[in-house]
Amino acid sequence: MIITHSAGQLWKDCPTRYKRRHVDHLVLAVKEYTPHLFYGTAFHSILERYHFDDFDVEACVDYLVNEISLKNEDHKAHLIASFLAYAEKEKKLQQWDEFVYSEKEFRQPIIHQGTGEPHPDFIQGGKVDGIVRIGEQFFLLEHKTAARPDEHYQRRISIDRQIHQYALFVSKELGIEIEGVLYNVIPKELRWSRKGRKSNGPLEGLKDYTARLKSRYMEKEFLRFYVSLSPVTMADVAQECWTIADGVSRMMREDSWFKNTKRCFDYGRRCPYWELCETGDRPDVMSLYTTKDPHEELSIV
Ligand code: SF4
Is the CB of 17 under 6 A from ligand 1? Predict the structure, then answer.
């Protein structure tokens, strides 16, 4: 079986939530529209075409107009304006010599740090946004969209365990050393501003929004920066992967999953399995759900 970083985090957050998604394969039949999630996914998709497939700016805009589905037309206008501002600023930033891989998947054994044995039930899977070469060195490329990419944000993602986990397994998968991570952080803004910044001022139009975004990106908020990998965190992460895989295995064998109710309303949203937990899996509530294979981000599971 495969476990990914996000599945492992889900299990750490609430084992019952992990079970509903990764053992029972349940998802809500009607997918909730979360603009920030859709925006982030769409931006990842266009950056892949722009940087890896060498689409020019015009082809990228065509792609956004014709291929990307965002329910809210305003959000789509914001996405296109953000991409145009990004493309203008991006040329002035640190470039790589070669974009070696895009959306690179990996699958690797999870090794016990004491015995060197692979885990009997799980392998680690995942997908990185990209791998670039600068000189003779290789870096993970991570695209992020963030509402406020300030210094605090930069510090927070610098210690992100996911990138350490990715570096650990990608270097084994490809037989190359990963020197660090090159972050590509795009500020996002999904609201029109009021002209003159007055609360009763008229809403800006697309032209003003685009100009405001371009100047925001041009000044300081669009970030591309390196993060080096911490050997201590790499060792911690290698151990943690085993601990998580073993914990999930045990719960599966015993079919015993506890609920962590502290996580029911994370990020101001109700957990998608709230109704099931509330009603004790009442049969009529099951009709709100359908089944879907886990690890949607991977091509083969
Ligand atoms: S509703 Fe709460 S307890 Fe139930 S699966 Fe979600 S996070 Fe866990």
Answer: yes
